[in-house]
Amino acid sequence: MKIQSAILGVALAVSPSAAFSTSSNTNIASSSSSTQLHSTIPKPGTVTTSLTPPSKLPDSSSTADLFESRVYKTYGRYPITFTSGHGCILTDDTGKDYLDFVSGIATCALGHNNEALTSAITNQMKQLHHVSNLYYTPGQAQLADWLCTNSCADKAFFCNSGAESNEAAIKLARRHANNRGITDPVIITAENSFHGRTLATVTATGQPKYHKGFTYGGEMVRGFQYTPYNDVEKLKALVEEVNQTPEEDAKEGRKRGVAAIMMEPLQGEGGIRPGTVEFFAAARKLCDDNGALLICDEVQVGMGRSGSLWGHEQLGVEPDVFTSAKALGGGVPIGAMMAKGEAADVFGPGDHASTYGGNPLACAAGLAVAEYLSEHNVLDNVRVRGEQLAAGLEDITNRYPSVLGETRGWGLLRGVVIKDDAGCTAAELVGDAMKEGLLLVAAGPSVVRFVPPLIVSEDEINDALARFEKAIEKRVGES
Q1: DSSP SS3 for 223
Q2: Which of 105, 170, 423, 464 is the most buried (most CB within 10 A)?
Protein backbone atom coordinates (compact mmCIF):
# COMPACT_ATOMS: atom_id res chain seq x y z
CA MET A 1 0.00 0.00 0.00
CA LYS A 2 2.93 2.31 0.88
CA ILE A 3 4.55 1.61 -2.50
CA GLN A 4 1.28 2.42 -4.32
CA SER A 5 0.94 5.67 -2.37
CA ALA A 6 4.49 6.64 -3.23
CA ILE A 7 3.94 6.03 -6.93
CA LEU A 8 0.69 8.05 -6.82
CA GLY A 9 2.51 10.84 -5.03
CA VAL A 10 5.20 11.02 -7.70
CA ALA A 11 2.58 11.03 -10.42
CA LEU A 12 0.60 13.83 -8.82
CA ALA A 13 3.74 15.80 -8.21
CA VAL A 14 4.22 15.96 -11.96
CA SER A 15 0.65 17.23 -12.54
CA PRO A 16 -2.76 15.87 -11.50
CA SER A 17 -4.08 16.20 -15.05
CA ALA A 18 -1.01 14.69 -16.66
CA ALA A 19 -0.92 11.80 -14.19
CA PHE A 20 -4.22 10.41 -15.47
CA SER A 21 -4.08 11.55 -19.10
CA THR A 22 -4.63 8.98 -21.84
CA SER A 23 -2.95 11.19 -24.39
CA SER A 24 -0.33 9.43 -26.53
CA ASN A 25 2.04 12.31 -25.71
CA THR A 26 2.08 11.50 -21.99
CA ASN A 27 4.76 9.05 -20.81
CA ILE A 28 5.27 7.48 -17.42
CA ALA A 29 8.83 6.56 -16.63
CA SER A 30 9.78 3.20 -15.15
CA SER A 31 13.10 1.64 -14.21
CA SER A 32 13.18 -0.50 -17.33
CA SER A 33 11.19 1.20 -20.06
CA SER A 34 8.87 4.03 -21.03
CA THR A 35 5.27 2.90 -21.74
CA GLN A 36 2.51 4.98 -23.28
CA LEU A 37 -1.00 4.84 -21.79
CA HIS A 38 -3.47 3.87 -24.51
CA SER A 39 -6.69 1.96 -25.01
CA THR A 40 -6.35 -1.80 -25.44
CA ILE A 41 -9.71 -2.10 -27.22
CA PRO A 42 -9.14 -2.93 -30.91
CA LYS A 43 -11.39 -2.08 -33.80
CA PRO A 44 -14.22 -4.57 -34.57
CA GLY A 45 -13.16 -7.48 -36.75
CA THR A 46 -9.41 -7.03 -36.21
CA VAL A 47 -8.89 -9.76 -33.60
CA THR A 48 -10.19 -13.21 -32.76
CA THR A 49 -12.42 -13.29 -29.71
CA SER A 50 -13.94 -16.08 -27.68
CA LEU A 51 -17.24 -14.17 -27.56
CA THR A 52 -19.87 -14.45 -30.28
CA PRO A 53 -21.33 -10.99 -31.03
CA PRO A 54 -25.14 -10.81 -31.19
CA SER A 55 -24.81 -9.76 -34.82
CA LYS A 56 -23.05 -13.05 -35.65
CA LEU A 57 -25.54 -15.37 -33.96
CA PRO A 58 -27.45 -17.69 -36.32
CA ASP A 59 -30.72 -16.07 -37.42
CA SER A 60 -32.46 -19.26 -38.52
CA SER A 61 -34.73 -19.34 -35.46
CA SER A 62 -37.84 -17.21 -35.26
CA THR A 63 -38.34 -14.79 -32.40
CA ALA A 64 -40.99 -17.08 -30.94
CA ASP A 65 -38.62 -20.08 -31.15
CA LEU A 66 -35.86 -18.14 -29.37
CA PHE A 67 -38.30 -17.15 -26.64
CA GLU A 68 -39.31 -20.79 -26.31
CA SER A 69 -35.74 -22.01 -25.92
CA ARG A 70 -33.98 -19.06 -24.25
CA VAL A 71 -36.44 -16.90 -22.29
CA TYR A 72 -37.95 -17.88 -18.96
CA LYS A 73 -41.67 -18.58 -19.35
CA THR A 74 -42.88 -16.13 -16.72
CA TYR A 75 -45.49 -14.78 -19.15
CA GLY A 76 -48.14 -16.49 -21.23
CA ARG A 77 -47.50 -14.65 -24.48
CA TYR A 78 -49.86 -14.18 -27.41
CA PRO A 79 -48.47 -15.33 -30.79
CA ILE A 80 -47.62 -11.84 -32.03
CA THR A 81 -44.20 -10.25 -32.52
CA PHE A 82 -44.26 -6.45 -32.51
CA THR A 83 -41.51 -4.58 -34.29
CA SER A 84 -42.62 -0.94 -34.40
CA GLY A 85 -45.21 1.52 -33.23
CA HIS A 86 -46.45 5.06 -33.62
CA GLY A 87 -48.98 6.85 -31.47
CA CYS A 88 -51.70 4.35 -30.51
CA ILE A 89 -50.74 1.88 -33.24
CA LEU A 90 -48.44 -1.15 -32.97
CA THR A 91 -47.20 -3.05 -36.03
CA ASP A 92 -46.19 -6.71 -36.02
CA ASP A 93 -43.53 -8.49 -38.06
CA THR A 94 -46.03 -9.24 -40.84
CA GLY A 95 -46.94 -5.57 -41.24
CA LYS A 96 -50.35 -5.84 -39.58
CA ASP A 97 -51.42 -2.85 -37.48
CA TYR A 98 -53.14 -3.10 -34.10
CA LEU A 99 -54.93 -0.41 -32.11
CA ASP A 100 -53.11 -0.50 -28.79
CA PHE A 101 -55.43 -0.19 -25.78
CA VAL A 102 -52.92 -1.87 -23.48
CA SER A 103 -50.07 0.66 -23.77
CA GLY A 104 -47.62 -1.66 -22.09
CA ILE A 105 -50.21 -2.09 -19.30
CA ALA A 106 -50.73 1.59 -18.50
CA THR A 107 -47.11 2.45 -19.24
CA CYS A 108 -46.78 4.13 -22.65
CA ALA A 109 -48.66 7.26 -21.60
CA LEU A 110 -47.56 9.22 -24.67
CA GLY A 111 -48.04 6.30 -27.04
CA HIS A 112 -45.27 4.88 -29.18
CA ASN A 113 -42.46 6.78 -30.87
CA ASN A 114 -43.47 10.07 -29.30
CA GLU A 115 -41.21 12.73 -30.80
CA ALA A 116 -40.63 14.65 -27.56
CA LEU A 117 -39.79 11.53 -25.56
CA THR A 118 -37.55 10.12 -28.29
CA SER A 119 -35.68 13.39 -28.61
CA ALA A 120 -35.14 13.70 -24.86
CA ILE A 121 -33.73 10.19 -24.56
CA THR A 122 -31.55 10.54 -27.65
CA ASN A 123 -30.08 13.83 -26.50
CA GLN A 124 -29.43 12.53 -22.99
CA MET A 125 -27.63 9.44 -24.32
CA LYS A 126 -25.29 11.76 -26.21
CA GLN A 127 -24.50 13.66 -23.03
CA LEU A 128 -24.57 11.40 -19.95
CA HIS A 129 -26.70 8.33 -19.40
CA HIS A 130 -25.59 6.98 -16.02
CA VAL A 131 -23.47 7.82 -13.01
CA SER A 132 -23.67 6.56 -9.45
CA ASN A 133 -26.03 8.12 -6.94
CA LEU A 134 -22.89 9.05 -5.05
CA TYR A 135 -23.02 12.25 -7.12
CA TYR A 136 -25.58 14.92 -8.02
CA THR A 137 -27.25 14.95 -11.43
CA PRO A 138 -29.50 17.80 -12.65
CA GLY A 139 -32.28 15.64 -14.09
CA GLN A 140 -32.98 13.76 -10.87
CA ALA A 141 -33.23 17.01 -8.92
CA GLN A 142 -35.54 18.54 -11.54
CA LEU A 143 -37.84 15.51 -11.72
CA ALA A 144 -38.07 15.31 -7.93
CA ASP A 145 -38.95 19.00 -7.86
CA TRP A 146 -41.71 18.52 -10.47
CA LEU A 147 -43.19 15.53 -8.64
CA CYS A 148 -43.24 17.35 -5.31
CA THR A 149 -44.51 20.63 -6.75
CA ASN A 150 -47.41 18.79 -8.38
CA SER A 151 -48.38 16.72 -5.35
CA CYS A 152 -48.51 16.77 -1.57
CA ALA A 153 -44.99 15.28 -1.37
CA ASP A 154 -41.89 16.89 0.06
CA LYS A 155 -39.26 14.42 -1.14
CA ALA A 156 -38.82 11.67 -3.74
CA PHE A 157 -36.75 8.49 -3.89
CA PHE A 158 -36.05 7.00 -7.33
CA CYS A 159 -35.77 3.38 -8.38
CA ASN A 160 -36.61 1.33 -11.49
CA SER A 161 -40.09 -0.18 -11.21
CA GLY A 162 -43.39 -0.24 -9.38
CA ALA A 163 -42.39 -3.22 -7.25
CA GLU A 164 -39.23 -1.40 -6.17
CA SER A 165 -41.10 1.78 -5.32
CA ASN A 166 -43.54 -0.22 -3.20
CA GLU A 167 -40.65 -2.10 -1.62
CA ALA A 168 -39.18 1.27 -0.63
CA ALA A 169 -42.51 2.31 0.89
CA ILE A 170 -42.71 -0.93 2.88
CA LYS A 171 -39.19 -0.45 4.25
CA LEU A 172 -39.97 3.17 5.10
CA ALA A 173 -43.13 2.14 6.97
CA ARG A 174 -41.24 -0.45 8.99
CA ARG A 175 -38.45 1.97 9.88
CA HIS A 176 -40.99 4.63 10.86
CA ALA A 177 -42.78 2.13 13.12
CA ASN A 178 -39.49 0.97 14.61
CA ASN A 179 -38.68 4.58 15.47
CA ARG A 180 -41.94 4.64 17.45
CA GLY A 181 -40.94 1.56 19.46
CA ILE A 182 -42.96 -1.00 17.49
CA THR A 183 -40.95 -4.22 17.24
CA ASP A 184 -43.61 -6.14 15.31
CA PRO A 185 -44.90 -3.69 12.65
CA VAL A 186 -47.92 -4.72 10.58
CA ILE A 187 -48.85 -3.27 7.20
CA ILE A 188 -52.52 -3.64 6.29
CA THR A 189 -53.34 -4.12 2.61
CA ALA A 190 -56.53 -5.03 0.77
CA GLU A 191 -57.83 -8.32 -0.48
CA ASN A 192 -57.47 -8.60 -4.30
CA SER A 193 -54.76 -5.94 -4.27
CA PHE A 194 -51.60 -6.07 -6.36
CA HIS A 195 -48.33 -4.42 -5.28
CA GLY A 196 -45.56 -6.22 -7.16
CA ARG A 197 -43.55 -9.41 -7.58
CA THR A 198 -40.69 -9.07 -5.09
CA LEU A 199 -41.05 -11.25 -2.02
CA ALA A 200 -42.28 -8.38 0.17
CA THR A 201 -44.56 -6.77 -2.41
CA VAL A 202 -46.10 -10.07 -3.48
CA THR A 203 -46.79 -10.72 0.21
CA ALA A 204 -48.44 -7.30 0.38
CA THR A 205 -50.55 -8.43 -2.59
CA GLY A 206 -53.76 -9.80 -1.10
CA GLN A 207 -54.21 -12.63 -3.59
CA PRO A 208 -53.23 -16.12 -2.33
CA LYS A 209 -52.69 -17.40 -5.87
CA TYR A 210 -49.55 -15.26 -6.10
CA HIS A 211 -48.20 -16.69 -2.82
CA LYS A 212 -48.35 -20.35 -3.83
CA GLY A 213 -44.91 -21.97 -3.81
CA PHE A 214 -43.08 -19.02 -2.24
CA THR A 215 -43.74 -19.59 1.45
CA TYR A 216 -41.40 -20.65 4.24
CA GLY A 217 -43.11 -23.00 6.65
CA GLY A 218 -46.40 -22.00 5.09
CA GLU A 219 -45.75 -18.29 5.66
CA MET A 220 -44.89 -15.43 3.37
CA VAL A 221 -42.99 -12.39 4.69
CA ARG A 222 -44.36 -11.70 8.15
CA GLY A 223 -46.01 -8.42 9.06
CA PHE A 224 -48.85 -8.16 6.52
CA GLN A 225 -52.58 -8.55 7.10
CA TYR A 226 -55.46 -8.14 4.68
CA THR A 227 -58.86 -6.50 4.81
CA PRO A 228 -61.76 -6.32 2.32
CA TYR A 229 -61.41 -3.33 0.01
CA ASN A 230 -63.85 -0.46 0.67
CA ASP A 231 -65.16 -2.06 3.91
CA VAL A 232 -64.74 0.61 6.60
CA GLU A 233 -65.91 -1.47 9.57
CA LYS A 234 -63.64 -4.42 8.74
CA LEU A 235 -60.69 -2.04 8.43
CA LYS A 236 -61.42 -0.45 11.81
CA ALA A 237 -61.71 -3.86 13.45
CA LEU A 238 -58.44 -5.06 11.98
CA VAL A 239 -56.56 -1.95 13.11
CA GLU A 240 -57.88 -2.46 16.65
CA GLU A 241 -56.83 -6.12 16.58
CA VAL A 242 -53.35 -5.45 15.24
CA ASN A 243 -52.69 -2.83 17.90
CA GLN A 244 -53.15 -5.42 20.64
CA THR A 245 -49.84 -7.14 21.44
CA PRO A 246 -50.26 -10.82 22.41
CA GLU A 247 -49.50 -11.31 26.11
CA GLU A 248 -46.64 -13.75 25.57
CA ASP A 249 -44.96 -11.33 23.15
CA ALA A 250 -45.40 -8.39 25.52
CA LYS A 251 -43.62 -10.36 28.25
CA GLU A 252 -40.61 -10.57 25.93
CA GLY A 253 -40.61 -6.81 25.47
CA ARG A 254 -42.20 -6.90 22.03
CA LYS A 255 -44.85 -4.50 20.79
CA ARG A 256 -47.19 -5.04 17.84
CA GLY A 257 -48.84 -2.17 16.01
CA VAL A 258 -50.03 -0.84 12.69
CA ALA A 259 -47.11 0.54 10.69
CA ALA A 260 -49.15 1.53 7.65
CA ILE A 261 -52.33 1.08 5.67
CA MET A 262 -51.29 0.51 2.06
CA MET A 263 -53.97 0.77 -0.62
CA GLU A 264 -54.40 1.31 -4.34
CA PRO A 265 -56.77 4.26 -5.00
CA LEU A 266 -58.19 2.01 -7.71
CA GLN A 267 -57.48 -1.71 -7.78
CA GLY A 268 -56.12 -2.51 -11.24
CA GLU A 269 -55.18 -6.20 -11.32
CA GLY A 270 -57.96 -6.78 -8.80
CA GLY A 271 -60.63 -5.99 -11.39
CA ILE A 272 -60.70 -2.19 -11.95
CA ARG A 273 -62.33 -1.36 -8.63
CA PRO A 274 -62.21 2.31 -7.57
CA GLY A 275 -61.84 3.10 -3.91
CA THR A 276 -64.61 4.96 -2.11
CA VAL A 277 -64.25 8.36 -0.49
CA GLU A 278 -65.60 6.94 2.78
CA PHE A 279 -63.07 4.09 2.90
CA PHE A 280 -60.05 6.27 2.23
CA ALA A 281 -61.24 8.93 4.67
CA ALA A 282 -61.49 6.23 7.33
CA ALA A 283 -58.03 4.92 6.44
CA ARG A 284 -56.60 8.44 6.74
CA LYS A 285 -58.19 8.96 10.17
CA LEU A 286 -57.08 5.56 11.45
CA CYS A 287 -53.50 6.32 10.43
CA ASP A 288 -53.64 9.74 12.08
CA ASP A 289 -55.10 8.33 15.29
CA ASN A 290 -52.54 5.54 15.51
CA GLY A 291 -49.35 7.22 14.29
CA ALA A 292 -49.28 5.01 11.19
CA LEU A 293 -48.61 5.95 7.58
CA LEU A 294 -51.17 6.00 4.78
CA ILE A 295 -49.51 4.65 1.64
CA CYS A 296 -51.14 4.91 -1.80
CA ASP A 297 -49.90 2.62 -4.55
CA GLU A 298 -50.21 4.84 -7.63
CA VAL A 299 -48.14 2.63 -9.94
CA GLN A 300 -50.99 1.98 -12.40
CA VAL A 301 -53.51 4.74 -11.74
CA GLY A 302 -51.04 7.58 -11.20
CA MET A 303 -49.39 10.01 -13.65
CA GLY A 304 -52.68 11.15 -15.11
CA ARG A 305 -54.51 7.95 -15.96
CA SER A 306 -57.44 8.67 -13.64
CA GLY A 307 -58.03 12.15 -15.09
CA SER A 308 -56.14 13.79 -12.24
CA LEU A 309 -52.38 13.51 -11.88
CA TRP A 310 -52.72 11.19 -8.87
CA GLY A 311 -55.48 8.74 -8.15
CA HIS A 312 -55.76 9.74 -4.49
CA GLU A 313 -56.89 13.18 -5.66
CA GLN A 314 -60.09 11.48 -6.82
CA LEU A 315 -60.70 10.47 -3.20
CA GLY A 316 -59.96 13.71 -1.39
CA VAL A 317 -57.13 12.37 0.78
CA GLU A 318 -53.42 13.11 1.08
CA PRO A 319 -51.26 10.06 1.76
CA ASP A 320 -48.05 10.19 3.77
CA VAL A 321 -46.36 8.11 1.07
CA PHE A 322 -47.29 7.26 -2.50
CA THR A 323 -45.57 5.36 -5.26
CA SER A 324 -45.28 5.70 -9.02
CA ALA A 325 -43.74 3.90 -12.01
CA LYS A 326 -45.20 2.71 -15.34
CA ALA A 327 -46.27 5.97 -17.04
CA LEU A 328 -43.68 8.00 -15.10
CA GLY A 329 -41.08 7.26 -17.79
CA GLY A 330 -43.50 6.68 -20.66
CA GLY A 331 -42.03 3.19 -21.16
CA VAL A 332 -38.48 3.86 -19.97
CA PRO A 333 -37.96 2.01 -16.66
CA ILE A 334 -38.23 4.33 -13.68
CA GLY A 335 -40.02 4.23 -10.35
CA ALA A 336 -40.42 6.70 -7.53
CA MET A 337 -41.58 6.79 -3.94
CA MET A 338 -42.78 10.16 -2.69
CA ALA A 339 -43.28 11.13 0.96
CA LYS A 340 -44.42 14.16 2.90
CA GLY A 341 -43.95 15.57 6.37
CA GLU A 342 -42.44 13.25 8.95
CA ALA A 343 -42.34 10.38 6.46
CA ALA A 344 -40.05 12.40 4.21
CA ASP A 345 -37.32 12.34 6.87
CA VAL A 346 -37.34 8.64 7.81
CA PHE A 347 -34.57 7.42 5.50
CA GLY A 348 -30.98 8.53 5.88
CA PRO A 349 -27.77 7.59 4.01
CA GLY A 350 -27.44 3.83 3.75
CA ASP A 351 -31.05 3.05 4.72
CA HIS A 352 -32.10 2.41 1.14
CA ALA A 353 -30.55 2.71 -2.31
CA SER A 354 -30.80 1.88 -6.00
CA THR A 355 -27.94 1.62 -8.48
CA TYR A 356 -29.92 2.72 -11.52
CA GLY A 357 -32.58 4.71 -9.68
CA GLY A 358 -32.99 8.23 -11.02
CA ASN A 359 -30.11 8.03 -13.47
CA PRO A 360 -29.82 10.77 -16.12
CA LEU A 361 -31.38 8.66 -18.90
CA ALA A 362 -34.44 7.60 -16.90
CA CYS A 363 -34.97 11.09 -15.51
CA ALA A 364 -34.72 12.61 -18.99
CA ALA A 365 -37.62 10.36 -19.95
CA GLY A 366 -39.54 11.29 -16.80
CA LEU A 367 -39.02 15.00 -17.42
CA ALA A 368 -40.13 14.63 -21.05
CA VAL A 369 -43.34 12.93 -19.94
CA ALA A 370 -43.91 15.57 -17.26
CA GLU A 371 -43.35 18.38 -19.75
CA TYR A 372 -45.69 16.81 -22.31
CA LEU A 373 -48.47 16.23 -19.77
CA SER A 374 -48.15 19.83 -18.60
CA GLU A 375 -47.79 21.63 -21.93
CA HIS A 376 -50.39 19.65 -23.90
CA ASN A 377 -53.16 19.65 -21.28
CA VAL A 378 -53.25 15.86 -21.42
CA LEU A 379 -55.33 15.53 -18.26
CA ASP A 380 -58.25 17.19 -20.03
CA ASN A 381 -57.94 14.68 -22.84
CA VAL A 382 -57.95 11.83 -20.33
CA ARG A 383 -61.16 13.10 -18.74
CA VAL A 384 -63.01 13.70 -22.02
CA ARG A 385 -61.84 10.53 -23.75
CA GLY A 386 -62.46 8.56 -20.56
CA GLU A 387 -66.08 9.70 -20.48
CA GLN A 388 -66.42 8.82 -24.16
CA LEU A 389 -64.99 5.34 -23.55
CA ALA A 390 -67.19 4.71 -20.53
CA ALA A 391 -70.34 5.80 -22.38
CA GLY A 392 -69.45 3.63 -25.36
CA LEU A 393 -68.86 0.57 -23.19
CA GLU A 394 -72.19 1.15 -21.43
CA ASP A 395 -73.94 1.20 -24.82
CA ILE A 396 -72.30 -2.07 -25.85
CA THR A 397 -73.19 -3.60 -22.49
CA ASN A 398 -76.83 -2.68 -23.01
CA ARG A 399 -76.79 -4.39 -26.41
CA TYR A 400 -75.14 -7.56 -25.09
CA PRO A 401 -76.47 -8.00 -21.53
CA SER A 402 -75.97 -11.77 -21.67
CA VAL A 403 -72.19 -11.30 -22.03
CA LEU A 404 -71.26 -8.01 -20.38
CA GLY A 405 -71.96 -6.69 -16.91
CA GLU A 406 -70.85 -3.60 -15.04
CA THR A 407 -68.51 -0.99 -16.55
CA ARG A 408 -66.24 0.72 -14.01
CA GLY A 409 -63.09 2.76 -13.59
CA TRP A 410 -61.73 6.29 -13.88
CA GLY A 411 -60.39 8.28 -16.81
CA LEU A 412 -58.58 6.00 -19.24
CA LEU A 413 -58.43 3.05 -16.86
CA ARG A 414 -61.70 1.26 -17.56
CA GLY A 415 -62.94 -2.27 -17.16
CA VAL A 416 -66.03 -4.16 -18.25
CA VAL A 417 -67.16 -7.27 -16.38
CA ILE A 418 -67.70 -10.52 -18.27
CA LYS A 419 -70.66 -12.35 -16.76
CA ASP A 420 -70.15 -15.78 -15.22
CA ASP A 421 -72.57 -17.40 -17.68
CA ALA A 422 -71.23 -15.53 -20.72
CA GLY A 423 -69.59 -18.65 -22.08
CA CYS A 424 -66.13 -17.08 -22.21
CA THR A 425 -63.48 -15.63 -19.94
CA ALA A 426 -61.99 -12.16 -20.10
CA ALA A 427 -58.79 -13.61 -21.57
CA GLU A 428 -60.74 -15.34 -24.35
CA LEU A 429 -62.56 -12.11 -25.21
CA VAL A 430 -59.21 -10.32 -25.29
CA GLY A 431 -58.10 -12.94 -27.85
CA ASP A 432 -61.24 -12.30 -29.89
CA ALA A 433 -60.55 -8.55 -29.92
CA MET A 434 -56.99 -9.20 -31.03
CA LYS A 435 -58.32 -10.90 -34.16
CA GLU A 436 -60.12 -7.62 -34.90
CA GLY A 437 -56.86 -5.69 -34.55
CA LEU A 438 -57.57 -4.37 -31.03
CA LEU A 439 -55.21 -4.99 -28.12
CA LEU A 440 -56.85 -5.26 -24.69
CA VAL A 441 -55.75 -6.90 -21.43
CA ALA A 442 -57.59 -8.87 -18.78
CA ALA A 443 -57.79 -7.70 -15.16
CA GLY A 444 -58.46 -10.96 -13.40
CA PRO A 445 -60.57 -13.78 -14.87
CA SER A 446 -63.72 -11.76 -15.50
CA VAL A 447 -62.80 -8.17 -16.40
CA VAL A 448 -61.55 -6.82 -19.73
CA ARG A 449 -59.35 -3.77 -19.22
CA PHE A 450 -59.03 -0.74 -21.53
CA VAL A 451 -55.85 1.30 -20.91
CA PRO A 452 -54.97 3.25 -24.08
CA PRO A 453 -52.22 5.88 -24.26
CA LEU A 454 -53.29 9.13 -22.64
CA ILE A 455 -53.03 10.91 -26.00
CA VAL A 456 -55.71 8.71 -27.61
CA SER A 457 -58.07 10.54 -29.97
CA GLU A 458 -61.85 10.61 -30.29
CA ASP A 459 -61.69 8.62 -33.55
CA GLU A 460 -59.45 5.99 -31.98
CA ILE A 461 -61.87 5.53 -29.07
CA ASN A 462 -64.72 5.05 -31.55
CA ASP A 463 -62.60 2.63 -33.58
CA ALA A 464 -61.76 0.58 -30.48
CA LEU A 465 -65.40 0.39 -29.42
CA ALA A 466 -66.43 -0.78 -32.90
CA ARG A 467 -63.77 -3.49 -32.95
CA PHE A 468 -64.68 -4.65 -29.44
CA GLU A 469 -68.35 -4.91 -30.34
CA LYS A 470 -67.49 -6.83 -33.50
CA ALA A 471 -65.54 -9.33 -31.40
CA ILE A 472 -68.50 -9.77 -29.05
CA GLU A 473 -70.90 -10.09 -31.96
CA LYS A 474 -68.83 -12.93 -33.43
CA ARG A 475 -68.52 -14.61 -30.03
CA VAL A 476 -72.30 -14.48 -29.51
CA GLY A 477 -72.94 -15.72 -33.05
CA GLU A 478 -70.73 -18.77 -32.48
CA SER A 479 -72.40 -19.73 -29.19
Answers
A1: coil
A2: 170
